[in-house]
Design brief:
- The complex is a heterodimer of chains A (74) and B (407).
- With 74 residues, chain A is of the alpha+beta class.
- Helix content of chain A is 20%, strand content 34%.
- Chain A has a single domain, classed as 2-Layer Sandwich (Alpha-Beta Plaits).
- Chain A has helices at 16-20, 55-64, and strands spanning 2-7, 25-27, 34-36, 40-42, 45-50, 70-73.
- In chain A, the strands form two sheets. Chain A has a four-stranded antiparallel sheet. A two-stranded antiparallel ribbon of chain A has the order 2-3.
- With 407 residues, chain B is an alpha/beta fold.
- Chain B contains ten helices and 22 strands.
- Chain B has helices spanning 7-15, 43-52, 70-83, 93-101, 117-123, 138-150, 181-186, 233-238, 253-272, 277-288, and strands at 2-3, 20-24, 56-61, 87-90, 106-108, 129-131, 162-169, 204-206, 213-215, 226-228, 243-246, 295-296, 318-330, 335-340, 345-346, 350-355, 359-364, 368-370, 373-375, 377-378, 383-387, 397-403.
- In chain B, the strands form five sheets. In chain B, strands 1, 2, 3, 4, 5, 6, 7, 10, 11 and 12 form a ten-stranded mixed sheet that branches. In chain B, strands 17-16-22-13-14-21 form a six-stranded antiparallel sheet. Chain B has a two-stranded antiparallel ribbon with strand order 8-9.
- In chain B, helix 1 (7-15) packs parallel to helix 9 (253-272) and helix 2 runs parallel beside helix 3 (70-83).
- Chain B is globular and about 70 Å long.
- Chain B starts with a strand and ends with a strand.
- The chains are: A alpha+beta (74), B alpha/beta (407).
- At the A-B interface, loops of A face helix 3 of B.
């Protein structure tokens, strides 16, 4: 299992993560920021554990994020 | 028109005599990254403060807009309308159309790059104020304002279209900020307010065949100096400009206070017929004391192309050093008490106090007290008190202003 963490408040809604890992990310229509699907919030840090097959796409999303708020832990 | 990137800057702008302020909320503005951005919850408070001080409030909502933003943008515009914001500064047609549909006044952002009278006529269908492209000369600006007057081009409010230009602050190398450098190197789109400012760095040219690295004479080839119009403000106002924008939502309250004060005095002097060279020289010195990359006149005076900066950061002649935080204000005797957390404070020091309600206050220490009585110098860790006409709060920060060359 791998863990994906997002510091959501700092998201600027650029859409990169949704483009690169669409199975794990959606844009919120409510506030225009991205949503890490299945994640739970702990003091602003949203995290979710997912299977290895999502690793590559989420690492790509983390690398592309212009505000560096996505972390992928193997 | 002054930038408000924080409550400190907002109060500093109001105290310094601005007519209007502009600010962003959440991520939908050109300073999405700025740590001091306002949130949706701040909007009513910001608008109320402006109304109480007879200052117009403009919400900037001028980024590129995607489909996933539309609903959130409507929420922000509805909130601006109910909070009583004067207008929204918009670039995207989705924002312009929705603002019009809820009867919120629209100003056209410089991001739209308006450069001619026909475009002004087009946007006059939706907007009451139009910010022209920063790349026009004052002669071109004057032509546009003359035709607005002659043909009586009016906005939805029924008033003549007002023309706004950038008067002071950072310029970038790209036309109307339409730059992709930051997007290409850091995935961070300047047009979504996430610019990493890589144009402000120095660069080398490398020969691909032999690997020779060539230093470029002026290393900072893409970093424009800051715009300053105070030395030809008479020509700017004669060109029919009615709104002068000061850039700097990412800058501190001290910058906002100094620039707004200088331009306020300059505009008032021009109107009173007392705009003189001596005054200009004095304003220039004051403007140089806060954050700047060196000054040039932009494109307003015609064919003078980009003047580039020769340093990575500010050329301000003064620096502020953080000393400590506010403790108490003794109303009756008008004395402010601060706790010094770093460095020391002496009689004769120039100080700056900033805070969300206080704004920015500058003064010089004439007498100083600590626990033991009157002293010449208060040391780190001590509490100290001095006379001050305006109240301070515990949220206030105390700085010492020193000559930048001495730090």
């Amino acid at each position: 299992m791998i863990t994906i963490i997002q510091q959501r408040a700092k998201c600027i809604g650029c859409n990169y993560c949704v483009e690169l890992a669409p199975q794990r990310w959606r844009m919120s229509k409510k506030d225009g920021k991205s949503v890490l699907l299945g994640a739970i919030d702990k003091k602003g840090f949203w995290s979710v554990k997912v299977r290895e097959d999502e690793l590559d796409s989420n690492i790509a999303a983390a690398k592309a994020c212009p505000v560096n708020i996505i972390q992928v832990i193997e | 028109m002054a930038p408000a990137g924080s409550y400190e800057a907002l109060m500093a702008a109001i105290h310094a005599g601005c007519d209007s302020v502009y600010f962003g909320v959440e991520q939908f503005n050109m300073r999405a990254r700025a740590t001091m951005n306002f949130t949706l919850e701040d909007l009513p408070k910001v608008c109320t403060i402006c109304k109480e001080n007879n200052v117009r409030s403009y919400l900037t909502l001028n980024t590129i807009v995607y489909d996933h933003d539309l609903s959130a943008i409507k929420t922000v515009l509805d909130a601006a309308k109910s909070a009583g914001a004067t207008a929204v500064i918009a670039a995207d047609q989705a924002v312009i159309a929705y603002a019009r549909s809820i009867n919120l006044e629209v100003h056209i952002s410089t991001q739209v790059n308006v450069t001619n009278i026909e475009t002004v006529k087009f946007y006059a269908l939706f907007a009451d104020t139009i910010v022209l492209s920063r790349e026009l000369s004052l002669i071109q600006v004057k032509k546009i304002t003359d035709i607005i007057e002659k043909e009586q081009i009016k906005g939805p409010s029924g008033r003549l279209i007002e023309i706004e230009i950038f008067g002071h602050g950072a310029l970038c190398m790209a036309v109307s900020g339409k730059c992709y450098l930051s997007l290409h190197t850091a995935n961070a789109s300047a047009n979504r307010g996430a610019c990493v400012q890589n144009c402000r760095r120095s660069y080398k040219v490398i020969d691909n065949e032999d690997g020779h690295e060539l230093e470029i004479d002026n290393e900072y080839i893409m970093s424009a100096q800051d715009l300053c119009t105070i030395d030809f403000l008479d020509q700017v106002l004669d060109a029919g400009v009615t709104v002068l924008k000061i850039e700097g939502r990412g800058k501190g309250a001290d910058y906002v206070k100094t620039t707004v004060e200088c331009y306020r005095e300059a505009i008032d002097s021009y109107q009173a017929g007392t705009y003189t060279k001596e005054k200009v020289a004095e304003w220039m010195e004051r403007l140089k004391s806060v954050y700047n990359r060196g000054f040039w006149s932009g494109y307003y005076l015609g064919q003078k192309l980009g003047e580039w900066n020769d340093a990575p950061g500010s050329k301000a002649t003064t620096k502020k050093i953080f000393l400590g935080k506010g403790v108490h204000y003794f109303d009756k005797i008008k004395v402010a008490e601060f706790k010094l957390e770093s460095y020391e404070l002496s009689v004769g020091d120039k100080i700056l106090i900033t805070g969300p309600t206080t704004g920015a206050i500058e003064t010089t220490i004439e007498e100083l007290h600590n626990d033991k009585g009157a002293v010449n110098t208060a040391k780190k860790g001590e509490s100290c008190a001095f006379k001050l006409d305006t109240p301070i709060r515990t949220s206030d920060k105390l700085y010492k202003i020193v000559d930048a060359t001495l730090v």
